[in-house]
Backbone:
């Protein structure tokens, strides 16, 4: 008899796939056949087979898996068999937990395809090999995510929306090879073959172009039978508004914080797109010029009822003496929402905008001596915070341990039918939220200890020390970029530019005006420490 067998040969077979797409394929069947064959060869008796559809990369989300492991321990099922290493875990937390169960002789873990057994008497090299597999599997998931995100960004750059969730009126179409066969991977976005959905969206835009409110648009689409009966209750005013403001219908989309021009065909006529003021990509875009530093919507209209982009609108004037036509750079609000009765008095020259923005650079420029003093103070503060954070971290770790204990007790109550499924689900959700809360606090505390903010502060101080010199030598585009780093919410109130300094620079500006910004040191710190100890 094998050393690991003992007197108990009761076995649980755990069959796991990562997602719903694999649920209907032969993966579960393949795993089960191999595990049955392995158990027969090794004298193991399968008393329970658990089929799981959930990812192994995140321990917090593995409810069914953790439930199966706890049930095996509770029911004295000594042996748990997986198809191979990566079917057990792809995260280090579950890896450590199961190793603890094994070393306490609560479980013997088998990997059928690899013909490997992990039990209390296994050598250190066997546990080490398992650790390597777990780390490799975790790294595989990390690399897969990076490759997937890179591939999706490339797809976005090529003009195709990377998401599988497309707006109403569009559908995904599988790409085909040269012979017309559908490829397993890759898709493009086309108008929805269900013409009813296309007509529904088109009608919303048509009615909006005629000046209808969101409420009247919703009522008209329902009355005209454009909205399927089963979707009427979900058809809200906010969904109408979202579509009318969705730049996707104008041929654009956002991905990972960047805007791209899509290759998908328009289902809304351009004339209607230009009329609908809700749409962010109307004809006014033609006035936005890359060579105009303030013509990219960086400044907004200050009127709270408007808030539209300030755009470049050059004025041409013919010089009588020379006959030359000269261009004068001017800017004004697009007035797309028709808030302003007239544009009279709202045109402002580029030079006047610069004159009003230039003082911001003087306001945040500091001397090198002040930068050194601030840096020294930050380092002193960091040392104090570091000590305090270490105490906090221990508290957060203890809190996480307490949450895990509560979750274990909750699961025990559920498996013994002391509480119903609904109560279990609500309490588990509450504990999960609590666990995530303490995890976030722990990460924030660790970030503070790592001193990442010191590097950020250093960059800010370097910019503030050299701001004036850099600004004077920079091109208009580079100067605008500098202003973008230090200013927030720039708005144009008729011809007056108003703005706020971003938080760190606002603090610097305030510190410049105070001579006593830094707390005074003790005149005799050694004596003070001695008194505190005695």
Residues:
């Amino acid at each position: 008899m094998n050393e690991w067998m003992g007197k108990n040969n009761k076995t649980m077979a755990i069959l796991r796939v990562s997602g719903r797409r694999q649920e209907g394929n032969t993966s579960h069947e393949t795993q089960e056949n191999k595990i049955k064959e392995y158990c027969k060869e090794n004298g193991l008796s399968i008393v329970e087979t658990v089929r799981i559809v959930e990812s192994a990369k995140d321990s917090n989300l593995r409810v069914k898996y953790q439930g199966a492991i706890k049930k095996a321990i509770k029911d004295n099922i000594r042996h748990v068999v997986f198809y191979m290493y990566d079917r057990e875990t792809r995260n280090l937390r579950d890896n450590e937990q199961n190793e603890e169960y094994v070393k306490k002789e609560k479980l013997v873990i088998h990997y059928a395809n690899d013909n490997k057994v992990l039990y209390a008497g296994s050598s250190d090299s066997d546990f080490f090999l398992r650790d390597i597999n777990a780390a490799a599997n975790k790294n595989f998931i990390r690399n897969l995510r990076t490759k997937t995100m890179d591939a999706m960004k490339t797809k976005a750059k090529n003009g195709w929306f990377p998401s599988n969730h497309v707006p109403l009126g569009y559908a995904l179409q599988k790409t085909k090879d040269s012979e017309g066969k559908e490829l397993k991977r890759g898709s493009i976005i086309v108008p929805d073959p269900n013409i009813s959905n296309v007509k529904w969206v088109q009608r919303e835009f048509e009615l909006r172009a005629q000046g209808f409110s969101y409420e009247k648009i919703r009522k008209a689409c329902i009355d005209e039978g454009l909205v399927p009966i089963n979707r009427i209750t979900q058809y809200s005013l906010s969904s109408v508004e979202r579509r009318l403001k969705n730049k996707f219908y104008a041929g654009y989309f956002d991905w990972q914080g960047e805007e791209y021009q899509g290759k998908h065909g328009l289902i809304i006529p351009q004339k209607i797109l230009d009329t609908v003021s809700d749409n962010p990509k109307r004809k006014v875009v033609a006035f936005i010029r890359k060579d105009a530093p303030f013509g990219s919507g960086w400044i907004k209209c200050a009127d709270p009822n408007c808030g539209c982009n300030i755009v470049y609108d050059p004025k041409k004037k013919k010089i009588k003496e020379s006959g030359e036509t000269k261009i004068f750079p001017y800017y004004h609000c697009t007035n797309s929402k028709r808030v302003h009765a007239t544009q009279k008095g709202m045109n402002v020259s580029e030079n006047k905008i610069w004159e009003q923005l230039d003082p911001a650079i003087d306001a945040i420029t500091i001397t090198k001596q002040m930068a050194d003093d601030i840096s020294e103070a930050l380092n002193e503060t960091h040392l104090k915070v570091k000590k305090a954070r270490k105490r906090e971290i221990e508290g957060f770790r203890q809190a996480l341990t307490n949450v895990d204990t509560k979750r274990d007790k909750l699961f025990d109550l559920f498996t013994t039918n002391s509480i119903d499924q609904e109560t279990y689900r609500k309490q588990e959700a509450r504990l999960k939220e609590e666990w995530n809360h303490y995890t976030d606090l722990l990460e924030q505390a660790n970030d503070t200890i790592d001193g990442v903010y010191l590097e950020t502060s250093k960059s800010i101080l370097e910019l503030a020390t050299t701001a004036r010199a850099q600004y004077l030598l920079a091109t208009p585009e580079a100067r605008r970029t500098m202003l973008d780093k230090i200013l927030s919410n720039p708005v144009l109130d008729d011809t007056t530019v108003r703005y706020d300094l971003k938080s760190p620079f606002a603090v610097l500006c305030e510190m410049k005006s105070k001579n006593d910004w830094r707390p005074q040191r003790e005149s005799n710190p050694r004596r003070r420490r001695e008194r505190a100890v005695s």
